[in-house]
Write a structure and sequence with these properties.
The complex is a heterodimer.
Chain A (H helix, E strand, L loop, with lengths): L9 H7 L2 H12 L2 H17 L10 H17 L24 H8 L4 H16 L3 H12 L4 H8 L3 H25 L11 H4 L17
Chain B lengths: L3 H12 L5 H13 L1 H23 L5 H29 L4 H20 L3 H6 L14 H13 L16 H4 L13 E11 L2 E10 L2 E9 L10 E5 L2 E8 L2 E8 L2 E7 L3 H10 L2
Antiparallel strand pairs in B: 1-2, 2-3, 3-7, 4-5, 5-6, 6-7
The chains are: A mainly alpha, B alpha+beta.
Chain lengths: ~220, ~280
């Protein structure tokens, strides 16, 4: 008997509305268009099978992203996300605040549109070079604009770890962009200020985060 | 300037809107006075905006992809509907249609157990499968059929890897999608095929343009070819040989048989079959 055309259920409709989100995040996780498509397909099938665990009205995008992350880890990374050697205590001596104001301005608004396009093209390549734990944190926060709490649930780690991965990930990303901007001649050389001094300033970023109830 | 160092450390937390309110006041006071930090904040925002735009621009779902997803969700929903009907049947009254093959399978399992030393392995696997009398298995004939199915170019029934698990009731052993990406194997699709009156899962791949079929079956019913060359790959015994110009490599893991048929060499087949589990 031939299958009758079936109307999509509400669940399927809502899940399909997150297709481009899942593909965008999946593409950055796998860094391969075809693997990203397979990952998204697996994710949605798993979501369909587990739909009774989804609370209607809650954030389906975050729920789907959690399934996507777990599926990725189970399929490609049995031991969890690829860790970074930088994920220890300050193995990256690159200072924050190492770039001067005029350089930052030049990177933000290069003089020509062509330069801007070149810099923007580079941003995904720079992102793809980050270790997975940093890359996923940056995508979930900067691209998907999820809260630290949601990211910690998706990645299965404490909020403090999310903050540290984000901070380091963004720092590496900016360094890459800065190096690229220098190669393109958008910015000039910077005086390296800070690295030695920066290391003295050990700050527990987590203590600055707003507490629950203050929101 | 002295405040910059502290501000810089938490500037991204501020930009994320997750900063403790008392620090927000402090940071905003500083930003009003410090050109450098406010440029830093603007760069922070500009970078995120570019990132958001580019990440989405570089991964737009194609129409074909959306269709593929819809089709696989549809197939999954249908599979569930069928499973519910089956479940209801199992839980309630048995229809004559299901009793007859079950009884036949039970009779054959008994017959089989009288002939072998492993009765329970056959008895609990695939109870609904009607096995023909196996008697003395002619392995050459099995090889012939494996090659025939390998050559067969009909379209696969299942292309969604995660749906392969659904072949388990028919094949009588667990069927999982083998990860062969490290060998450059491209997944084509799978189907359940009859081999010597049994059913096996046939999983088709392309390796460097060469067709390769991975079979998964109940190895209690297809004894490993002792006439084949035995070798040890990755500490696992693997049997390899040739049939009509195709190399066949087989192995057995806890009652699940695997065979790889390909026109690649014996070595490749042995390596791939050893990686399956």
């Amino acid at each position: 008997m031939a299958a009758l055309p079936r109307k999509l259920s509400d669940f399927e409709k809502e899940a399909m509305s997150h297709l481009s989100t899942l593909l965008a995040v999946g593409s950055r996780l796998t860094r391969s268009p075809s693997e990203a498509e397979d990952l998204v397909q697996d994710t949605l099938l798993k979501a369909l099978r587990a739909r009774e665990h989804f609370t209607p009205g809650s954030n389906m995008r975050a729920w789907l992203l959690r399934i996507l992350t777990n599926t990725f880890i189970n399929r490609y990374r049995r031991g969890g996300l690829e860790r970074s050697v930088l994920d220890g205590p300050d193995a990256d001596p690159l200072a924050d605040g190492w770039i001067g104001a005029s350089t930052m301005e030049a990177m933000r608004d290069p003089e020509s549109r062509a330069m801007r396009a070149l810099l923007e093209k580079e941003i995904v390549a720079a992102l793809d070079e980050l270790p997975e734990e940093f890359r996923l944190a940056v995508v979930l926060s900067d691209v998907e604009e999820l809260s630290y709490k949601e990211i910690s649930e998706i990645m299965g780690c404490p909020i403090g770890t999310v903050m540290s991965r984000l901070h380091r990930g963004r720092r590496l990303l900016k360094r890459r962009l800065y190096e690229h901007a220098r190669t393109l001649g958008i910015v000039g050389p910077e005086e390296a200020v800070g690295p030695a001094r920066e290391r003295d300033a050990v700050v527990d970023i987590s203590s600055y985060r707003k507490k629950a109830g203050n929101a | 300037m002295s405040g910059c160092r502290k501000i810089v450390t938490v500037l991204d937390v501020y930009a994320d809107g997750e900063l403790e309110p008392e620090h927000v006041v402090e940071i905003e006071g500083h930003l009003a006075d410090c050109e450098s930090c406010s440029a830093r904040l603007q760069l922070e925002h500009a970078t995120r905006k570019s990132l958001r735009r580019e990440v989405y621009a570089q991964a737009q779902p194609s129409a074909a992809f959306s269709e593929r997803i819809l089709a696989s969700l549809q197939a999954e929903a249908e599979r569930e509907a069928v499973a519910e009907v089956d479940g209801a049947r199992r839980g309630g009254m048995l229809s004559w249609g299901s009793i007859v093959p079950l009884a036949a399978a039970a009779a054959i399992a008994l017959l089989w157990s009288a002939k072998t030393d492993k009765p329970q392995a056959v008895a609990h696997r695939a109870p609904t499968q009607v096995a023909a009398s196996t008697g003395t298995m002619n392995f050459e004939q099995v090889l012939d059929e494996l090659v025939d199915r390998h050559i067969d170019r009909s379209t696969p029934e299942v292309t969604e890897p995660s749906l392969l698990d659904g072949m388990e009731p028919q094949v009588g052993v667990p069927v999982h999608f083998p990860s062969l990406a490290q060998y450059g194997a491209r997944w084509q699709g799978g189907k359940v095929v009859p081999i010597h009156n049994q059913r096996a899962a046939s999983l088709r791949f392309l390796v460097d343009g060469h067709r390769m079929t991975v079979y998964v079956y109940n190895s209690e019913r297809f004894p490993v070819a002792t006439s084949f060359k035995r070798r040890v790959v990755r500490n696992e015994p693997v049997y390899t040989g040739w049939k009509r110009g195709y190399s066949i490599a087989t192995t057995d893991r806890h009652g699940v048989g695997y065979a790889v048929a390909t026109d690649l060499g014996e070595e490749e087949g042995a390596e791939i079959v050893a990686s399956l589990h």
